[in-house]
Amino acid sequence: MSNTAPAHTAVSGNRKWAIGFTSVVAFFFILNKFILPEAGSGVQKFFNAWFSLTSMAEIMIWIIMALGLNIIVGYAGLLDLGYVAFWALGGYVAGWLMSPFFSGLNINFFGNPRPGLEFGIHFHVFLVLILGGVFTAIWGVIIGGPTLRLKSDYLALVTLGFGEIIPQFMLNGADIAGYNVTNGAQGIGGLDDVNLFGYVIGTFALPEKFLMVSLMAGAMIFFSIRLRDGRLGRAWLAIREDELAASMMGVPLWRTKFASYAIGAVGGGIGGVGFAILVGGVYADRFNFVISIIILAMVVMGGMGNVWGVVVGAVTLAWINSVGLIQVGELVNNSFGTNINFPSYQFLLFGLLLVLMMLFRREGFIPEARIRMVMNEDKVDEEVSDETKIASK
Amino acid sequence: MIKPIKIGALAIAGALALAACSGGSDSAGGDVLVVGTDLPLQGASADASKSTNEVAALVLEQAGGKAGDFTVEIKEYDDSTAAKGAWDDAACAKNAQDHVANTAQVAVMGTYNSGCAKIIIPVLNQAGMLMVSHANTYPGLTVEWDKGEPGLYYPSGARNYARVIAHDGFQGTAAAQFLFNEQGVTNLAVLDDTQAYGIGIADAVQIEFEKLGGTVFRGSWDVKQTQGYTATFEKIKASGATAVYYGGIFDNNGVQLVKDKTTVLGDNTAFLSMAPDGFSGYPTLREMPEAEGLWMTFAGKSLDGIIKGGGAPAKFIEDYTAKYGAQPNSSYAVYGGVAMQVILKAIAASDGTRQGVIDAVFAGEPLCLTAEESVSGMGFCLSTETGDVDTVTMTLQQMTGGVETDIKTLDIK
Question: What domain range includes position A69?
């Protein structure tokens, strides 16, 4: 067998998934932009209920978040329980740089302020996305620097602490030494509409907004795959599998972990900016511990380390949270005449799903090859043993 | 091996097949107009929201399901998610688009949370749809508060949002005036619970109290402060304050707060305390001996006040109790009914279009409900300029014998 065969298979697999992802995005864009407006009310109602475009756009944000965390948890094997902090930071970058919030300033750099609300800071969305990524990467470095020498449980606890501190800062940031930095619990609203070289994506341009965040998710998928296959990605995987062996092979442990934290944080920053644009503002209430856990569950259930597995995990859990349980509940109640409030059982169902996954498919929906081997070590050993016996015969 | 393209194709085919099977048409068509209710149906506010939806449904039922010549239906929207257990910004943004997408819908009753209203109002404003809230008390939604407000929420430049409850500015003003003028307090400690409602109302108390010539010690209590609040009350003691105002809601660790206040500063005869309607309607608070003597304000009439007032409003509560087996969960639920009454009246006065319904509130003569009409027993007119009520009835209550007792009502113009 050729040495390039596994690599070829991986590239081919990625291509298939990429075509699948692009097809689904194109399908929903074309459907909502051109077909549904002309379709019958029954068809419109169905898609609005089960696959509303606002929910689909939100799912794309969850994909970006999950892929960001996947770099930290899935690639480098560092348990992060405070990823929501990066979401918050990214969101506030959008709030600061795309709204009239800093009313004492009057800065417009290719921005798109609303008439009458020209004061504040109004940057172009591309610049805000870049700055959002850079800002969170810097915070990833600040947080990662002093903590990454810790291991496993201790690191998890410290990240949990940061995950609590930053949202609390946002919540209480209305008066920092006399300055209103975050507008506290009131949040920052009135974000500018996105203006792409004269084409304004307004409040009701949902297909365009969906396409925009889908492109962001697509870019995140691309960079995740490229990173994993590169030198840095292989170093992360080596550390994840065996830190001691990796260091013996010359992998600089601290620097490599540090890079995973900084690069992983970028996903949170970009996703945070995208989410703030979708919602039209940023509100501190969102950023709580549960969000960090849900993102982590997306990574674990999807398949830690496997980009497409994480995408499937994010789509599944985000859809269930957004519309799935409500619609399935309505379907069941209408079909059987029951009156069960399915969303109220979300965490019961969620917990049940986690338990079942851990019992029957610990490695996730679509596991990464190495993790599958580790998780099924006994089976692999048996298979190897069988193969050896056959060969010896 | 999993075939991703096949999976995608199968999912799309399945979706289309389901869509083809679903058939049917919108429940609302022709002259049937839809009013959406937008409330958090999951988490801590679930019971209050359920009760509010029931009150709104009963109001419509008693109107014969009609507003003028139009048949009206209610569609319930949930602006919370189970994951958060509270209102969710993404759910609010989704609902805003869903309201607009429902072509038969002409108005929204809600929201419960001001934060959610901040997201929904601008979307509905651009689509030209009326929204009437029964519970949003953040002042900046209708009047100038922070820079850019309230214009920030009305991109079209025209108004489309009204509320049937007084904003925090009124309640804070009434509390400050009561403490300064009637209780002789000149040095007041004002605490907030670090959340939007609490900060807003605490700000309002502080501004009015300082305007009257009093001195304010400002602090906060955080729900996550598990070690309690004795240190905060020690600071208050040292500040020379003679009364404390709790700006926030009792849900946010109010039990610990009230207990620690009594431990450090003494009971309410020794050291006066006062709270807004965020402390109203909690059986746990009523059962606490430390709460005895606590002063409270309620923006509007309390549930007991409505029942004691008799007439049509009391009959409505009776009807509700007969139908659902218990009284409305809170006074806010009743105000949900008032908001629905406003919407029905606006629809009746309109041509059945979204713009017509908005015009019924914001153009021409102000839309009014008389005290006899209103299920809260409180008459008012809506300002065509701001969408706020022109008359605010404030109920002053005191906890006596484990009951929130109405002391008097204050009509503030």
Answer: 13-392
